[in-house]
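Here we describe the complex-level prediction in full. Unlike the single-chain runs in Section 2.1, the two entities below were treated as one system.
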Amino acid sequence: MPQGVPIEFDGLTKRFGAVEAVSRLTFAVQPGRVTGFLGPNGAGKTTSLRMLLGLVRPTEGTARIGGRRYRELDRPFETIGVALESTAFHPGRTARDHLRVQARAAGVAPARADAVLDRVGLHEYGGRKVGGYSMGMRQRLGLAQALLGEPGVVVFDEPINGLDPEGIRWIRGFLRDLAAEGRTVLISSHVLSEVQQSVDEVVVIAKGRLVHTGPLSSIGSGEAAVVVDAPDRGALAAALHAAGIAATPFDDGLRVTDADSARVGAVAQAAGVALSALVPARTQSLEEGFLELVGEGGSL
Amino acid sequence: MNAALRSARAELSKIFTTRAWWVLAVILAGYVALLSGGLVIVVFGVAGTDAAQGGMFAPLAYSMTTAVGYVMPLLLGALVVTTEHRHGTLTPTFLATPSRGAVLAGKFGAGLVVAALLGVIGLAAAVAAGAIPLAAFGADTLLGDGDTWLMFGRILLAMALWGAIGVAFGVLLPSQVGAIIVVLAFTQFVEPVLRTAGAFVEGLDQVVRFLPGAASDSLVGTSVFTAFTAQGAEALPWWAAALVLAGYAAVFAAIGAATTWRRDVT
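The structure predicted for the assembly as a whole is:
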């Protein structure tokens, strides 16, 4: 079983001229969990990942995998597997040949190509030129490449982007399995809802800065609340007011934060108001919480 | 196996799993065969030259491999680097081999090997297309002559060096279209004009013999170009000519390694 090791960003900074694309990014990603690296487009996610992988030189700071920089890894695929954008394949080369080339370069047995094609469900298409691949197949080929060296750490940039519903369902299971095997799994996305069913932890950046890190439940939780509604909303509001319960209009109904659903139901019954909805809720949804973190211009 | 050797093997696989190499090989073989065979047929068949002079024309026919064919290993070498930029595949390449120096070494290794292979293919085509009509006209093919085989060795060395110059030039000028245009313009127009001028302008001949195409012809020892133009300055000795070619590769590679090869890959 591959041994997962932490990924550590320490004060990572990248300036392009006067523009600071990534600013003093410090956080760690732990094994055995799926961590979402989230932020709007242009927040600096891809630049951060490319610095982690030695493709972009940091202006300051370091990023290490199990204590070592990527450029110090002699056989990197045995430590960390990576899937970046889905277009970086020569269109005239077959998928199997691409994987064999990568395996040779990284010191992995070329026979692994077939094993990883199998793992991502591309086995029967391995002999096809990548130029004839769909977007989803390229995504899978990228994931296959990441698994060539059976690494303990995997990093996928926007792995769900462009997949059809069947592909999304498949990759969710795939990510779960990788984490359950003890690997460190880091996936980036600019859409929280895309990954919220997959991630355990979140790291949120905006404008190149870390704005939040913690378990998924730490985003948008807010206070516990009750959303209640009645065909006669005015009567309901009056009843709650008479009982000393504050209620604020919210989407389709009223939101109550200083009473639980049992008390709200009892008040409504005592006032003879028939309810059409009575649901526990949060004052802030995941989406709202995420938008608040990344500020204006967050694209969802 | 260290990273550079692994990279060289991977680069060889890259070349042989796409079709550019054999397209260039087919063009090379057809081109040099046409000119080698054509030269012999024109000289002995059309002009009716005495067959006893075969010894003078056989090396000219065989050396078409380098005299006109050198542009193919040059292009192949350049493609080894520029294709990666064109298709964005430097990312997976550098992910598999994080040391950029090792990748560069691997590309040079693979470029030398495949360029030498193109040399074998081109030479086989030039010799077959030249020797068969030579024998048919009753002229000496010189294939039993040790000097001819030494020349074949120098032709393969020259072709391999052209591959290395191509790799180095690709590092210097990563744009695929740009590299192809410059290679074709320089080899097919700029250098031939300069060499022709060198034959007539006093003093220029001292400089012109250091041009890469001229050095390549000096390395091989004979060429259809040098045979039919007035010779000014004495040609470089073959080993010096080989060093001149290697020097072009080294200078281009050094400049490229310090500039484009160090850049962030985004």
